[in-house]
Design brief:
The chain has 351 residues and is mainly alpha-helical. It is built from 16 helices and 5 strands. The strands form 2 sheets. It has a 3-stranded antiparallel β-sheet. It has a two-stranded antiparallel ribbon with strand order 4-5. The longest helix is centred in the first third of the chain and has 19 residues. The protein is elongated and about 85 Å long.
Length: 351
C-alpha cells in the first residue's frame, strides 16, 4: 500500500480524514475544532503522527485516520489526545516562514545583498499568506491566483511558494502557472543620449549629479554606485570595479568614454546615504529622480547603456558580463528593444 492508495481507501470510507506526507513523516488532515487557547473556528488542520512514510507507518496512519473519523462522527474528538503529537512539527504558515528564514540565512552570508533578495523575492510574498493557517497547496494557489498571468509578480510568487513548500515537505507543482517572459514586459521609455545629457544639466546637487553620471556611463544598478572601489576611480583608471551587489563583483567600462572625461566622474562625490540593505539605496535614488522631475527611471539609464554598447559594437557576451547578466538573459531583454534606427546604423558601419 502507498500513500495514494491509502487516501483512496479513506475517501471510499467517507470519513473526512486524509493522510499527508511532509518530508519523510505522515500527518492526519481533517476539518477540526480550534486548538485549546486559539480563537479561530473550525477549520482544516493537521495532526503529526510521528511516524515515517513506510509500510508500517502507512498502516498506522490508516488506523489513526479511522479513529479520528469516528471521533469526529460521534462528536467525541478531544484535542488533549493529540496535542503532544501535534506540536512536534511547525504547521502554521508563520511557523514555516520563521523556519525557512532561519535556514535561508544559515546557508548564506547575511549582508545587504542577501537581505534585499530575501525581502524582495521571499518575505513580501510570504507575508501575503494567511499567517495563522496551515501551509497548504490550496492557500498557495489562492495567492498565486491573485497575480496577473505571465507577470513578473506571478513568476516571483511561484518561485517563492514552491521553495517554501519544498522546505515544508509539501508536494506542490506550481511551475506550470509561471509563464513569465521578457517578451511580455512593457517596453520602457528608454531615454536618448541627447536627453540624458540635457537632464544631467538640470541636477543642481553635485553629489546626485555625479550619481546620475555614474548610472549613465557605467550602466550600474542604483545601489552599486555606493559599492564601488573609489580609490581606483579616483586614480583616473576609467575601468570601474564594483565590489559587491546583486550579482557580485565585476569590472565595468565607461560607454561613452567622452562622458566620463567631460563629466570628470573620477572626481567622486558620493551622497551621504544611510542604508541597511541594497534596496535602501534604490529607494533614495528613485526619490531624487522624482524630486528633479526626471522623466524616466534610474534603471532606464542602465537599459540605455546596454543598448548603447550594442550600437557601439561591444560583443554581446562582454556587455552581459559587465552588467552582471547571463548571456541568455541579456539577449532576451535587450535584443527586442533595439530600434530600427540602431539596425540601420549598424548596417551602414559594415558597408
Amino acid at each position: 500500500m502507498n500513500l495514494k492508495t491509502l487516501n483512496e481507501q479513506l475517501r471510499t470510507l467517507n470519513i473526512g480524514v486524509a493522510v499527508n506526507q511532509r518530508g519523510k513523516r505522515l500527518y492526519l488532515r481533517a476539518t477540526l475544532p480550534p486548538k485549546p487557547g486559539t480563537h479561530r473556528g473550525t477549520h482544516q488542520q493537521e495532526i503529526s503522527l510521528g511516524v515515517y512514510c513506510n509500510a508500517d507507518g502507512l498502516q498506522f496512519a490508516k488506523t489513526e485516520a479511522m479513529k479520528l473519523g469516528a471521533a469526529l462522527a460521534t462528536r467525541s474528538f478531544d484535542w488533549n489526545n493529540y496535542l503532544e503529537l501535534a506540536v512536534q512539527d511547525p504547521t502554521l504558515v508563520k511557523e514555516w516562514i520563521r523556519k525557512y528564514e532561519e535556514d535561508y540565512f544559515n546557508k548564506r552570508t547575511k549582508n545587504s545583498a542577501s537581505m534585499t533578495t530575501w525581502d524582495k523575492d521571499y518575505r513580501l510574498t510570504f507575508e501575503k499568506l494567511p499567517q495563522d493557517e496551515l501551509l497548504t497547496v490550496e492557500n498557495c494557489l489562492r495567492l498565486i491566483g491573485k497575480t496577473e498571468p505571465s507577470s513578473r509578480a506571478r513568476q516571483r510568487y511561484v518561485m517563492a511558494l514552491s521553495s517554501l513548500c519544498r522546505f515544508a515537505g509539501i508536494e506542490a507543482k506550481f511551475s506550470g502557472l509561471s509563464k513569465y517572459s521578457t517578451k511580455e514586459l512593457n517596453p520602457r521609455n528608454i531615454p536618448s543620449d541627447k536627453l540624458i545629457v540635457e537632464i544631467r544639466q538640470q541636477i543642481t546637487d553635485p553629489a546626485w549629479r555625479w550619481v546620475y553620471g555614474m548610472l549613465a556611463v557605467y550602466g550600474l544598478r542604483s545601489h552599486e554606485v555606493f559599492l564601488i572601489d573609489v580609490d581606483r576611480l579616483k586614480s583616473k583608471d576609467y575601468s570601474l570595479y564594483v565590489k559587491e551587489g546583486k550579482t557580485g563583483a565585476r569590472t565595468v567600462f565607461p560607454f561613452p568614454l567622452s562622458w566620463w572625461k567631460d563629466w570628470e566622474l573620477f572626481d567622486v562625490h558620493i551622497p551621504s546615504v544611510k542604508a541597511n540593505r541594497n534596496s535602501d539605496y534604490g529607494t533614495r535614488t528613485a526619490k531624487k529622480f522624482k524630486q528633479y522631475k526626471i522623466p524616466f527611471k534610474a534603471y532606464d539609464l542602465r537599459h540605455r547603456w546596454a543598448i548603447r554598447t550594442l550600437e557601439l559594437g561591444l560583443d554581446l557576451s562582454l556587455s552581459a558580463q559587465q552588467m552582471g547578466h547571463s548571456h541568455e538573459i541579456h539577449s532576451k531583454i535587450y535584443h527586442r528593444w533595439i530600434s530600427e534606427k540602431t539596425h540601420q546604423e549598424a548596417f551602414e558601419r559594415l558597408q
